C-alpha cells in the first residue's frame, strides 16, 4: 500500500509568495490578463499536485516558471489545431448525411434494379455503376451505340419512377457534386 505524503506547510507559503512573479511571467507569455490568470492558476494546480517532485533547496521560482512555460506551449499547440468559431458559422457549414439513409436508399435501388428488364439493367449498370463509356458498353452487349444509349435512358427513367424521384435535385451529397461538374444526372437520350 502506497503511503500518502502530507503536504509541506511551508510549500503553500512559498507558492503564495511567487504569485506576483508568476502573473508577470504569464502576462509576458500570453499578452492578455484573463489568459495570464488562467495560466497562473493552472501552474499552481500542477505544482501543488507535483510538489513531491520539487527538490527542496532548489529554486522554486525556476521550477514554477518551467511548469508555466511547458503548460503555455502545450496549450499553444492545442490552440493551433483548433478552429476559432465563436459565432458558430464554421460549425453551421459542416454537414454529413446520416448513414442509415444511404443503406435504405441502396436497398431501394437494388429492388428497383431487379424490376428492370435484363437488357436495360445490364446497360445501366455498365454505364452508371461501372463507369464504362457508351461505346464500351455497346461493344460488351454486342449492340449499336444508339441502342445502348436508349436502354440506359429507359432504365434511368424507370428507376426514377420506381424510386419516386422527379428530378436530379432530389439527390444529395456526391450525386450533386458529380451532376454539378458536368456528369449526367437524369440520363442521356439516344
Tell me briefly what this model is.
Residues 112-159 form the RNA polymerase sigma factor 70 region 4 type domain. By secondary structure, the chain is mainly alpha-helical.
Q: What is the strand tally?
A: 0
**Segments where pLDDT lies below 50 for 5+ residues?**
173-190
What is the gyration radius calculated from CA atoms? 34 Å
What's the overall average pLDDT, rounded? 81
Oligomer: single chain
Q: Supply the helix-strand structural class.
A: mainly alpha
What is the CATH level 1 assignment of the largest domain? Mainly Alpha
> Looking at CATH, which topology of the largest domain would you report?
Arc Repressor Mutant, subunit A
- Largest beta sheet, briefly? none
CATH architecture assignment name of the largest domain: Orthogonal Bundle
Which band does the percent of strand residues land in? under 5%
Helix amount, in percent? 55-70%
Number of helical segments? Answer: 10
Explained architecture:
The chain has helices spanning 9-17, 19-30, 33-49, 60-81, 89-93, 99-114, 118-129, 134-141, 145-162, 174-180. The protein is an all-alpha fold. The chain has two domains: 10-78, RNA polymerase sigma factor, region 2, helix turn helix motif (Rna Polymerase Sigma Factor, Chain: A), CATH 1.10.1740.10; 101-180, Arc Repressor Mutant, subunit A (Orthogonal Bundle). α2 (19-30) packs across α3 (33-49) and α2 packs parallel to α4 (60-81). It is rod-shaped. It starts with 8 loop residues before the first helix and ends in a 10-residue tail after the last helix.
Amino acid at each position: 500500500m502506497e503511503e500518502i505524503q502530507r503536504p509541506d506547510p511551508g510549500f503553500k507559503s512559498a507558492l503564495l509568495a511567487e504569485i506576483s512573479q508568476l502573473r508577470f511571467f504569464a502576462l509576458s507569455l500570453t499578452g492578455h490578463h484573463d489568459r495570464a490568470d488562467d495560466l497562473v492558476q493552472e501552474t499552481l494546480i500542477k505544482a501543488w499536485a507535483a510538489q513531491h517532485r520539487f527538490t527542496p533547496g532548489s529554486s522554486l521560482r525556476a521550477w514554477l516558471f518551467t511548469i508555466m512555460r511547458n503548460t503555455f506551449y502545450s496549450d499553444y499547440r492545442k490552440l493551433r489545431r483548433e478552429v476559432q468559431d465563436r459565432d458558430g458559422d464554421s460549425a453551421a457549414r459542416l454537414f454529413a448525411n446520416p448513414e442509415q439513409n444511404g443503406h435504405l436508399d441502396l436497398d431501394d435501388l437494388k429492388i428497383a434494379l431487379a424490376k428492370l428488364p435484363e437488357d436495360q439493367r445490364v446497360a445501366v449498370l455498365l454505364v452508371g455503376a461501372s463507369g464504362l463509356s457508351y461505346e464500351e458498353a455497346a461493344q460488351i452487349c454486342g449492340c449499336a451505340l444508339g441502342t445502348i444509349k436508349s436502354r440506359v435512358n429507359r432504365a434511368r427513367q424507370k428507376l426514377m419512377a420506381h424510386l419516386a424521384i422527379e428530378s436530379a435535385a432530389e439527390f444529395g451529397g456526391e450525386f450533386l457534386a458529380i451532376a454539378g461538374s458536368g456528369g449526367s444526372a437524369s440520363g442521356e437520350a439516344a
